[in-house]
Amino acid sequence: MDSLDPALIELLLSLDSITTGTEFRAWTSRELQTVFPHGAFVCGLLRIHPSGIAPLKIIGANFPTEYIQKLKQPNGLFYSAVIQSWLLCEEVQLIDGGALSHKNLDPLWLKHFKASGLQNIAAHGVMDYSRQHASYFSFHQIPGSLGELHRLKLRILVPHLHTVLLRVMHKNRGATPTNRTDRKLTTRELEVLTWVCDGKTSTEIAAILGIARNTVRNQMQSTLIKLRVNTRSQAVAKALKKGLVPNRQPDSRLGDF
Question: Model's pTM, two decimal places?
């Protein structure tokens, strides 16, 4: 690893200039390749639920969006066997393509992954103190065999990538002209509003979030008052127009934040 130290230090320093999702995606496709070569990449901020995950923001390069959509469950949450494995131990996940069939992985997930053409996996993330949110970084189509050097590199790189991801989100949130309105809504109100925008009923939202249906209704009533609207439909229209909620469905480009 000693011979890689100068390149790794230079790579980490280059992260300081990144302020947008477009810049971050370009960095993974250029600078990062010198230290951690790969063919496809995806990362995101996740909301952790007992029955799955809710992607809050996603950015990627050469990553198949159809694979992400196949991970969506009927309750609106997403399930990935590798992410679940990471959540259990919070350790780097390395899976060589040739060893996939020998791992104790969910068969349906394994079928979707093999069909995606992503080949192999090197992934790691950072959990927040509340253990309700996490950032997650997943690299694929990595040349050669995965080993301890890949594990060490991810352990060094991912905390810095996490910082950049938060910086990009913070800058984007600060740049939106509706930032003042956004701050009026609590985290829970924004969460409920996001699921309402996704077409979920109060009963469905209560099941997803693990709270009472009356709590959902109270949160939504408070949101209606703060947004100065009278109905859920009006709240959804205003939220989408003002950009108050994240896009639940990753678009075909896995685009910029």
Answer: 0.68
